[in-house]
Amino acid sequence: MSFPKKFLSSSFLSVIDQGMLSALNFCIGALLIRLVDKDDYGLYGQLYAGGLLAGLIVDSWIAGPLTTVASAVHENTRKLLLRRYWQRQIFWTVAMGLAAFLIVEFVPAATHHSNKGWLMAGAFGLYVIGNGLREYGRTVGFIQSDIHSVLRQDLVYVAAVLAGMLSLYLFEVIDVAHVFIVLAASSFLCALFGRHRIMDRTATQVSQVDAEDADILHEHQETIRGHGRWAVLGVIVGWLSNYSYVYLSGAWLGLAAIADLNASRLLLMPIPLAVAAWSRVARPEASRLMAEHNWSGLRKLTIVSILGIELVVFAYVGAMLLTLPWLEAYVIGSKYSGLGPLIMLWGGYFAINSVRTIGTSWLMSGGAFRSMFFLGTVTLILVVLITYQAIPYWGAAGAIFALIAVELFEMVVVWKYILPALQKRPKPQLPA
What we know:
Main location: membrane
Distance between the termini: 23 Å
Largest sheet: none
Mean pLDDT: 82
Shape: globular
Order of helices and strands: HHHHHHHHHHHHH
Strand content: under 5%
Transmembrane segments: 12-35, 47-69, 90-111, 117-133, 154-171, 177-194, 230-259, 265-282, 303-327, 339-359, 371-391, 397-419
Number of helices: 13
Membrane topology: Multi-pass membrane protein
Radius of gyration: 21 Å
Helix content: over 70%
InterPro entries: Poly_Biosynth_Transport
Organism: Undibacterium rivi
Protein backbone atom coordinates (compact mmCIF):
# COMPACT_ATOMS: atom_id res chain seq x y z
CA MET A 1 0.00 0.00 0.00
CA SER A 2 1.39 3.43 -0.98
CA PHE A 3 2.05 6.06 1.69
CA PRO A 4 -0.99 8.27 0.91
CA LYS A 5 -3.38 5.30 0.93
CA LYS A 6 -1.83 3.76 4.04
CA PHE A 7 -1.81 7.08 5.88
CA LEU A 8 -5.40 7.89 4.90
CA SER A 9 -6.54 4.38 5.84
CA SER A 10 -4.85 4.62 9.24
CA SER A 11 -6.21 8.13 9.73
CA PHE A 12 -9.72 6.97 8.87
CA LEU A 13 -9.59 4.12 11.39
CA SER A 14 -8.08 6.43 14.00
CA VAL A 15 -10.85 8.99 13.46
CA ILE A 16 -13.45 6.22 13.86
CA ASP A 17 -11.74 5.11 17.06
CA GLN A 18 -11.47 8.62 18.46
CA GLY A 19 -15.00 9.41 17.33
CA MET A 20 -16.23 6.44 19.33
CA LEU A 21 -14.37 7.68 22.44
CA SER A 22 -15.64 11.20 21.77
CA ALA A 23 -19.24 9.98 21.62
CA LEU A 24 -18.70 8.12 24.89
CA ASN A 25 -17.32 11.23 26.64
CA PHE A 26 -20.19 13.27 25.25
CA CYS A 27 -22.77 10.81 26.59
CA ILE A 28 -21.18 10.79 30.04
CA GLY A 29 -21.03 14.59 30.12
CA ALA A 30 -24.61 14.94 28.88
CA LEU A 31 -25.85 12.47 31.48
CA LEU A 32 -24.10 14.34 34.29
CA ILE A 33 -25.42 17.65 32.98
CA ARG A 34 -28.98 16.32 33.17
CA LEU A 35 -28.78 14.41 36.46
CA VAL A 36 -26.41 16.27 38.79
CA ASP A 37 -26.36 19.90 39.86
CA LYS A 38 -24.06 22.50 38.37
CA ASP A 39 -21.54 22.42 41.19
CA ASP A 40 -21.08 18.64 40.88
CA TYR A 41 -20.66 18.88 37.12
CA GLY A 42 -18.17 21.70 37.63
CA LEU A 43 -16.28 19.45 40.06
CA TYR A 44 -16.27 16.64 37.48
CA GLY A 45 -14.78 19.02 34.92
CA GLN A 46 -12.13 20.16 37.37
CA LEU A 47 -11.10 16.60 38.29
CA TYR A 48 -11.24 15.43 34.67
CA ALA A 49 -8.81 18.20 33.72
CA GLY A 50 -6.54 17.10 36.58
CA GLY A 51 -6.68 13.51 35.36
CA LEU A 52 -5.72 14.70 31.91
CA LEU A 53 -2.65 16.41 33.38
CA ALA A 54 -1.62 13.20 35.17
CA GLY A 55 -1.93 11.25 31.93
CA LEU A 56 -0.06 13.88 29.93
CA ILE A 57 2.85 13.89 32.38
CA VAL A 58 3.33 10.13 32.08
CA ASP A 59 2.80 10.28 28.32
CA SER A 60 5.35 13.07 27.90
CA TRP A 61 7.92 11.25 30.01
CA ILE A 62 7.52 7.90 28.24
CA ALA A 63 5.16 7.59 25.28
CA GLY A 64 5.81 10.96 23.61
CA PRO A 65 9.61 10.76 23.33
CA LEU A 66 9.31 7.02 22.70
CA THR A 67 7.13 7.73 19.66
CA THR A 68 9.71 10.24 18.44
CA VAL A 69 12.57 7.72 18.55
CA ALA A 70 10.92 4.33 18.07
CA SER A 71 9.41 5.28 14.73
CA ALA A 72 12.88 5.82 13.26
CA VAL A 73 14.71 2.63 14.37
CA HIS A 74 14.75 -0.97 13.20
CA GLU A 75 12.20 -3.49 14.42
CA ASN A 76 14.21 -5.35 17.03
CA THR A 77 15.35 -2.20 18.83
CA ARG A 78 11.82 -0.81 18.67
CA LYS A 79 10.41 -3.92 20.34
CA LEU A 80 13.02 -3.76 23.07
CA LEU A 81 12.15 -0.13 23.75
CA LEU A 82 8.42 -0.81 23.86
CA ARG A 83 8.79 -3.79 26.22
CA ARG A 84 11.12 -2.00 28.62
CA TYR A 85 9.04 1.17 28.74
CA TRP A 86 5.86 -0.80 29.41
CA GLN A 87 7.36 -1.65 32.80
CA ARG A 88 8.26 2.01 33.40
CA GLN A 89 4.78 3.07 32.33
CA ILE A 90 3.31 0.86 35.07
CA PHE A 91 5.60 2.36 37.73
CA TRP A 92 5.02 6.00 36.85
CA THR A 93 1.29 5.52 36.30
CA VAL A 94 0.89 4.03 39.78
CA ALA A 95 2.96 6.89 41.21
CA MET A 96 0.70 9.47 39.51
CA GLY A 97 -2.40 7.66 40.74
CA LEU A 98 -1.13 7.78 44.31
CA ALA A 99 -0.31 11.48 43.94
CA ALA A 100 -3.81 12.12 42.55
CA PHE A 101 -5.37 10.33 45.53
CA LEU A 102 -3.36 12.37 48.03
CA ILE A 103 -4.13 15.69 46.31
CA VAL A 104 -7.88 15.09 46.12
CA GLU A 105 -8.05 13.81 49.69
CA PHE A 106 -5.85 16.34 51.44
CA VAL A 107 -5.88 19.51 49.29
CA PRO A 108 -9.28 21.21 49.73
CA ALA A 109 -8.86 23.39 46.62
CA ALA A 110 -8.68 20.26 44.43
CA THR A 111 -12.40 19.71 45.02
CA HIS A 112 -13.21 23.39 45.54
CA HIS A 113 -13.54 22.74 49.28
CA SER A 114 -16.19 20.07 48.71
CA ASN A 115 -16.20 17.38 51.38
CA LYS A 116 -16.28 14.29 49.15
CA GLY A 117 -14.40 11.84 51.40
CA TRP A 118 -12.17 8.88 50.66
CA LEU A 119 -14.46 7.41 48.00
CA MET A 120 -13.90 10.33 45.63
CA ALA A 121 -10.14 10.39 46.18
CA GLY A 122 -9.81 6.62 45.78
CA ALA A 123 -11.98 6.53 42.67
CA PHE A 124 -10.02 9.35 41.05
CA GLY A 125 -6.64 7.79 41.91
CA LEU A 126 -7.71 4.45 40.41
CA TYR A 127 -9.00 6.25 37.33
CA VAL A 128 -5.59 7.87 36.77
CA ILE A 129 -3.84 4.48 37.08
CA GLY A 130 -6.26 2.61 34.85
CA ASN A 131 -6.28 5.29 32.19
CA GLY A 132 -2.46 5.36 32.07
CA LEU A 133 -2.23 1.60 31.62
CA ARG A 134 -4.86 1.65 28.88
CA GLU A 135 -3.16 4.49 27.02
CA TYR A 136 0.16 2.65 26.73
CA GLY A 137 -1.56 -0.15 24.84
CA ARG A 138 -2.86 2.45 22.42
CA THR A 139 0.63 3.98 22.11
CA VAL A 140 2.14 0.61 21.13
CA GLY A 141 -0.57 0.15 18.51
CA PHE A 142 0.00 3.57 16.96
CA ILE A 143 3.80 3.23 16.95
CA GLN A 144 3.56 -0.14 15.21
CA SER A 145 0.81 1.09 12.86
CA ASP A 146 -1.54 -1.57 14.25
CA ILE A 147 -4.64 0.63 14.35
CA HIS A 148 -6.94 -2.40 14.29
CA SER A 149 -5.68 -3.55 17.70
CA VAL A 150 -6.22 -0.03 19.08
CA LEU A 151 -9.78 -0.09 17.77
CA ARG A 152 -10.48 -3.52 19.30
CA GLN A 153 -9.08 -2.42 22.66
CA ASP A 154 -11.17 0.73 22.69
CA LEU A 155 -14.30 -1.23 21.75
CA VAL A 156 -13.81 -3.25 24.94
CA TYR A 157 -13.39 -0.04 26.92
CA VAL A 158 -16.49 1.64 25.47
CA ALA A 159 -18.63 -1.48 26.02
CA ALA A 160 -17.48 -1.74 29.65
CA VAL A 161 -18.14 1.94 30.34
CA LEU A 162 -21.61 1.80 28.79
CA ALA A 163 -22.47 -1.28 30.83
CA GLY A 164 -21.23 0.41 33.99
CA MET A 165 -23.07 3.68 33.33
CA LEU A 166 -26.27 1.76 32.56
CA SER A 167 -25.94 0.00 35.91
CA LEU A 168 -25.48 3.33 37.72
CA TYR A 169 -28.54 4.71 35.97
CA LEU A 170 -30.72 1.69 36.77
CA PHE A 171 -29.67 1.69 40.43
CA GLU A 172 -29.97 5.51 40.60
CA VAL A 173 -26.48 6.07 42.00
CA ILE A 174 -25.11 8.44 39.39
CA ASP A 175 -22.64 10.85 40.96
CA VAL A 176 -19.09 12.00 40.23
CA ALA A 177 -17.35 9.40 42.42
CA HIS A 178 -19.25 6.44 40.96
CA VAL A 179 -18.62 7.66 37.40
CA PHE A 180 -14.86 7.67 38.07
CA ILE A 181 -15.18 4.16 39.56
CA VAL A 182 -16.80 2.95 36.33
CA LEU A 183 -14.12 4.65 34.20
CA ALA A 184 -11.35 3.14 36.34
CA ALA A 185 -12.78 -0.39 36.27
CA SER A 186 -13.31 -0.20 32.50
CA SER A 187 -9.74 1.01 31.96
CA PHE A 188 -8.30 -1.84 34.04
CA LEU A 189 -10.40 -4.35 32.09
CA CYS A 190 -9.23 -2.84 28.81
CA ALA A 191 -5.56 -2.87 29.92
CA LEU A 192 -5.90 -6.52 30.93
CA PHE A 193 -7.47 -7.31 27.56
CA GLY A 194 -4.61 -5.58 25.72
CA ARG A 195 -1.73 -6.92 27.83
CA HIS A 196 -1.32 -10.13 25.81
CA ARG A 197 -1.26 -8.09 22.63
CA ILE A 198 1.49 -5.84 24.00
CA MET A 199 3.59 -8.83 25.09
CA ASP A 200 3.09 -10.52 21.72
CA ARG A 201 3.85 -7.42 19.65
CA THR A 202 7.03 -6.63 21.61
CA ALA A 203 8.38 -10.20 21.98
CA THR A 204 12.05 -10.70 21.01
CA GLN A 205 14.47 -13.60 21.22
CA VAL A 206 17.26 -13.02 23.75
CA SER A 207 19.77 -14.45 21.30
CA GLN A 208 18.98 -11.62 18.89
CA VAL A 209 20.27 -8.96 21.27
CA ASP A 210 23.93 -8.75 20.34
CA ALA A 211 26.47 -6.22 21.56
CA GLU A 212 25.70 -3.77 18.75
CA ASP A 213 21.97 -3.82 19.53
CA ALA A 214 22.70 -3.28 23.22
CA ASP A 215 24.73 -0.16 22.38
CA ILE A 216 21.99 1.11 20.08
CA LEU A 217 19.38 0.51 22.75
CA HIS A 218 21.45 2.40 25.31
CA GLU A 219 21.87 5.36 22.96
CA HIS A 220 18.14 5.46 22.22
CA GLN A 221 17.25 5.32 25.90
CA GLU A 222 19.53 8.29 26.56
CA THR A 223 17.75 10.15 23.76
CA ILE A 224 14.37 9.33 25.27
CA ARG A 225 15.42 10.48 28.72
CA GLY A 226 16.82 13.71 27.29
CA HIS A 227 13.58 14.39 25.41
CA GLY A 228 11.49 13.31 28.37
CA ARG A 229 12.91 15.82 30.84
CA TRP A 230 11.93 18.76 28.66
CA ALA A 231 8.71 17.07 27.51
CA VAL A 232 7.42 16.74 31.09
CA LEU A 233 8.15 20.40 31.87
CA GLY A 234 6.63 21.45 28.56
CA VAL A 235 3.44 19.46 29.02
CA ILE A 236 2.91 20.88 32.52
CA VAL A 237 3.12 24.50 31.39
CA GLY A 238 1.10 23.63 28.28
CA TRP A 239 -1.64 22.06 30.36
CA LEU A 240 -1.65 25.04 32.72
CA SER A 241 -2.07 27.34 29.72
CA ASN A 242 -4.92 25.31 28.22
CA TYR A 243 -6.79 24.45 31.43
CA SER A 244 -6.03 27.36 33.72
CA TYR A 245 -9.46 28.72 32.72
CA VAL A 246 -11.04 25.91 34.78
CA TYR A 247 -9.34 26.97 37.99
CA LEU A 248 -9.22 30.73 37.39
CA SER A 249 -12.91 30.96 36.47
CA GLY A 250 -13.73 28.73 39.42
CA ALA A 251 -11.77 30.96 41.77
CA TRP A 252 -13.47 34.13 40.50
CA LEU A 253 -16.93 32.90 39.55
CA GLY A 254 -17.45 29.54 41.33
CA LEU A 255 -18.11 25.96 40.19
CA ALA A 256 -21.24 27.00 38.27
CA ALA A 257 -19.07 29.05 35.88
CA ILE A 258 -16.86 26.00 35.31
CA ALA A 259 -20.02 24.04 34.55
CA ASP A 260 -21.15 26.58 31.91
CA LEU A 261 -17.71 26.65 30.28
CA ASN A 262 -17.42 22.86 30.27
CA ALA A 263 -20.98 22.32 29.04
CA SER A 264 -20.39 24.60 26.04
CA ARG A 265 -16.98 23.03 25.43
CA LEU A 266 -18.44 19.52 25.77
CA LEU A 267 -20.59 20.07 22.69
CA LEU A 268 -17.42 20.76 20.68
CA MET A 269 -15.20 18.06 22.20
CA PRO A 270 -15.30 15.88 19.04
CA ILE A 271 -13.05 18.53 17.46
CA PRO A 272 -9.98 18.19 19.77
CA LEU A 273 -10.52 14.44 19.95
CA ALA A 274 -10.48 14.23 16.14
CA VAL A 275 -7.30 16.30 16.13
CA ALA A 276 -5.81 13.93 18.72
CA ALA A 277 -6.75 10.97 16.50
CA TRP A 278 -5.00 12.58 13.57
CA SER A 279 -1.95 13.37 15.73
CA ARG A 280 -1.50 9.77 16.90
CA VAL A 281 -1.28 8.63 13.28
CA ALA A 282 0.62 11.59 11.82
CA ARG A 283 3.38 11.96 14.41
CA PRO A 284 5.23 8.71 13.62
CA GLU A 285 5.08 9.59 9.91
CA ALA A 286 6.26 13.15 10.60
CA SER A 287 9.14 11.75 12.69
CA ARG A 288 10.23 9.65 9.72
CA LEU A 289 9.98 12.55 7.27
CA MET A 290 11.93 14.88 9.57
CA ALA A 291 14.60 12.25 10.26
CA GLU A 292 15.06 11.99 6.47
CA HIS A 293 14.92 15.79 6.06
CA ASN A 294 12.09 15.23 3.59
CA TRP A 295 10.67 18.72 3.96
CA SER A 296 8.57 18.57 0.79
CA GLY A 297 6.85 15.45 2.11
CA LEU A 298 6.27 17.16 5.44
CA ARG A 299 4.85 20.20 3.64
CA LYS A 300 2.32 17.99 1.80
CA LEU A 301 1.36 16.29 5.05
CA THR A 302 0.91 19.71 6.67
CA ILE A 303 -1.36 21.06 3.91
CA VAL A 304 -3.56 17.96 3.91
CA SER A 305 -3.76 18.03 7.70
CA ILE A 306 -4.68 21.72 8.03
CA LEU A 307 -7.30 21.66 5.25
CA GLY A 308 -8.90 18.48 6.53
CA ILE A 309 -9.03 19.53 10.18
CA GLU A 310 -10.29 23.06 9.51
CA LEU A 311 -13.06 21.65 7.30
CA VAL A 312 -14.13 19.44 10.20
CA VAL A 313 -14.00 22.37 12.66
CA PHE A 314 -16.18 24.76 10.64
CA ALA A 315 -18.68 22.08 9.61
CA TYR A 316 -19.08 20.82 13.17
CA VAL A 317 -19.40 24.26 14.80
CA GLY A 318 -22.03 25.21 12.22
CA ALA A 319 -23.96 22.02 12.94
CA MET A 320 -23.87 22.68 16.69
CA LEU A 321 -25.19 26.23 16.32
CA LEU A 322 -28.02 25.07 14.06
CA THR A 323 -29.07 22.30 16.45
CA LEU A 324 -28.50 24.27 19.67
CA PRO A 325 -32.21 24.90 20.40
CA TRP A 326 -32.89 21.15 20.22
CA LEU A 327 -29.80 20.36 22.32
CA GLU A 328 -30.87 22.84 24.99
CA ALA A 329 -34.33 21.34 25.10
CA TYR A 330 -33.47 17.63 25.09
CA VAL A 331 -29.77 17.17 25.99
CA ILE A 332 -28.25 19.85 28.22
CA GLY A 333 -31.47 21.18 29.77
CA SER A 334 -32.72 24.59 30.86
CA LYS A 335 -29.96 24.94 33.50
CA TYR A 336 -27.55 25.66 30.65
CA SER A 337 -29.64 27.85 28.35
CA GLY A 338 -27.95 30.67 26.44
CA LEU A 339 -24.71 28.85 25.60
CA GLY A 340 -24.67 30.05 21.97
CA PRO A 341 -22.08 32.84 22.45
CA LEU A 342 -19.77 30.53 24.42
CA ILE A 343 -20.04 27.85 21.71
CA MET A 344 -19.09 30.38 19.03
CA LEU A 345 -16.09 31.48 21.09
CA TRP A 346 -15.01 27.87 21.64
CA GLY A 347 -15.39 27.29 17.89
CA GLY A 348 -12.98 30.13 17.15
CA TYR A 349 -10.61 28.81 19.78
CA PHE A 350 -10.56 25.29 18.32
CA ALA A 351 -10.09 26.60 14.76
CA ILE A 352 -6.88 28.33 15.87
CA ASN A 353 -5.89 25.59 18.31
CA SER A 354 -6.05 22.93 15.58
CA VAL A 355 -3.54 24.75 13.37
CA ARG A 356 -1.26 25.34 16.36
CA THR A 357 -1.57 21.68 17.38
CA ILE A 358 -0.32 20.56 13.97
CA GLY A 359 2.75 22.76 14.41
CA THR A 360 3.49 21.55 17.95
CA SER A 361 3.01 17.94 16.80
CA TRP A 362 5.77 18.53 14.26
CA LEU A 363 7.93 20.00 17.03
CA MET A 364 7.43 16.85 19.11
CA SER A 365 8.21 14.69 16.09
CA GLY A 366 11.44 16.64 15.66
CA GLY A 367 12.32 16.35 19.36
CA ALA A 368 12.07 20.11 19.99
CA PHE A 369 10.80 19.63 23.54
CA ARG A 370 13.06 22.30 25.01
CA SER A 371 11.69 24.96 22.67
CA MET A 372 8.16 23.84 23.52
CA PHE A 373 8.87 24.25 27.22
CA PHE A 374 10.11 27.83 26.89
CA LEU A 375 7.23 28.73 24.58
CA GLY A 376 4.78 27.14 27.02
CA THR A 377 6.23 29.14 29.90
CA VAL A 378 5.69 32.41 28.04
CA THR A 379 2.14 31.47 27.02
CA LEU A 380 1.29 30.45 30.60
CA ILE A 381 2.33 33.86 31.89
CA LEU A 382 0.31 35.54 29.13
CA VAL A 383 -2.84 33.48 29.69
CA VAL A 384 -2.85 34.17 33.43
CA LEU A 385 -2.36 37.92 32.91
CA ILE A 386 -5.00 38.17 30.17
CA THR A 387 -7.50 35.99 32.06
CA TYR A 388 -6.99 38.10 35.17
CA GLN A 389 -7.98 41.18 33.17
CA ALA A 390 -10.72 39.58 31.03
CA ILE A 391 -12.87 37.65 33.52
CA PRO A 392 -13.92 40.69 35.59
CA TYR A 393 -15.20 42.39 32.40
CA TRP A 394 -16.66 39.50 30.38
CA GLY A 395 -17.28 36.81 32.97
CA ALA A 396 -16.94 33.23 31.75
CA ALA A 397 -16.48 34.41 28.16
CA GLY A 398 -13.38 36.31 29.26
CA ALA A 399 -11.61 33.02 29.96
CA ILE A 400 -12.16 31.93 26.35
CA PHE A 401 -11.04 35.32 24.99
CA ALA A 402 -7.80 34.88 26.91
CA LEU A 403 -7.26 31.39 25.47
CA ILE A 404 -7.90 32.62 21.92
CA ALA A 405 -5.38 35.45 22.29
CA VAL A 406 -2.71 33.10 23.60
CA GLU A 407 -3.39 30.48 20.92
CA LEU A 408 -2.89 33.13 18.21
CA PHE A 409 0.42 34.15 19.76
CA GLU A 410 1.61 30.55 20.08
CA MET A 411 0.51 29.64 16.54
CA VAL A 412 2.52 32.51 15.05
CA VAL A 413 5.65 31.69 17.06
CA VAL A 414 5.52 27.98 16.19
CA TRP A 415 4.97 28.36 12.45
CA LYS A 416 7.00 31.51 11.79
CA TYR A 417 10.02 30.98 14.04
CA ILE A 418 10.48 27.57 15.71
CA LEU A 419 9.61 25.21 12.86
CA PRO A 420 11.75 27.06 10.27
CA ALA A 421 14.67 26.94 12.73
CA LEU A 422 14.11 23.21 13.21
CA GLN A 423 14.40 22.61 9.47
CA LYS A 424 17.84 24.28 9.44
CA ARG A 425 19.33 21.77 11.89
CA PRO A 426 21.89 19.35 10.40
CA LYS A 427 20.60 15.88 9.56
CA PRO A 428 21.06 13.66 12.67
CA GLN A 429 23.08 10.48 12.46
CA LEU A 430 20.48 8.24 14.16
CA PRO A 431 21.56 4.63 14.60
CA ALA A 432 19.44 2.07 12.79
